[in-house]
Amino acid sequence: MADRRLGVAIHGVGSVAYAHAASWRKNPHVEIVSVSSRSRASAQRLADKLELNCTVRDRFEDVLKDDRVDIVNISGPNHVHAEHGIASAEAGKHFMIEKPMVISMAENRALKDAVERAKVKTVVSFVLRWNPLFDNLKSLLASRVIGDLFYVEVDYWHGIGPWYTGWEWAHTYKTGGSAMLLAGCHAMDAIRWFVRDEVAEVSAFSNNIKGLYEYPANVVAILKFKNGVIGKTSTLLDSDMPYAFNIDLAGTEGTMRDNRLWSKKLFPGQTGWAAIPTIMPDSGAVEHHPFDAQMNHLVDCIRNNVESHCNVADAYHTHEVCMAIDQSIAAGGQTVRLPLA
Fold this sequence. Notes:
This protein is α/β, with parallel strands linked by helices. The protein has helices at residues 15-26, 40-49, 60-65, 81-90, 105-118, 132-142, 167-170, 173-176, 179-195, 291-304, 312-330; strands at residues 6-11, 30-36, 55-57, 71-74, 94-97, 122-124, 149-157, 199-207, 218-225, 230-236, 244-251, 254-257, 260-262, 274-275, 336-337.
């Protein structure tokens, strides 16, 4: 495997696929051999814009039959992610899959099982795991500069409306899923990434102020982890403000708020917040996301035959919590315990 370049097939050509393709092109161990979409014309536009010398298709089954394809970049609408992921696994293809990877628990279980049977390498596009601020926060948590973590809060606030290129499918139950699955899953995955334990129970409430979505656009959930850590996450798709991804981590000996640190253990004479100069997760633009690092990570996992920390098996739990939150909302805020039956 280490002696040849891996063939990448990009399937699904929304705006994020252009960022994916740009990142794949930078890795010396891969080459893009195929671009495909429901619309052959949209696939051709991506290939032409990035000057790719590859096959252009409109049939996913033809992608999976191509022996040159080692990795499938799954970036179509939400409701086809699971179908394409399962088919890729059954064809023996490694894959990178956009979030949410599923929009139902049946799909969640089926995708996880398919990957386990096929033993292919996967990465789910919770791309903020490679954000530099996240690297700093993870390092500080590991160094215990704020002691034992007991409270975590991460919020995704982004007013997403009909201007969004994927609006046609994003705002419905059938093809978008929910506010948590469409967008809030980034915040939920960040919480799991920081706590490194699984959620035991959730309670959630919602509203729908602007009436743009079939499902509730604004969600707040209270979380309790198995290890006793408590937390909160919220997703505001009706928010009228610049994009915000809020992070609060409270420990027994200090606190971190976004890129600000309070730790008298580390700074005994501290009198104010210490700011960490880093790249913040403060934009929803795909060009701002660290896709280079994400794609390089998957390639390294394949070449070295190791599992990713952000594979389908791990992302199963993030999606399960999101769907537990949706169940609590449907039940009027009742507590929902995990794992889901």
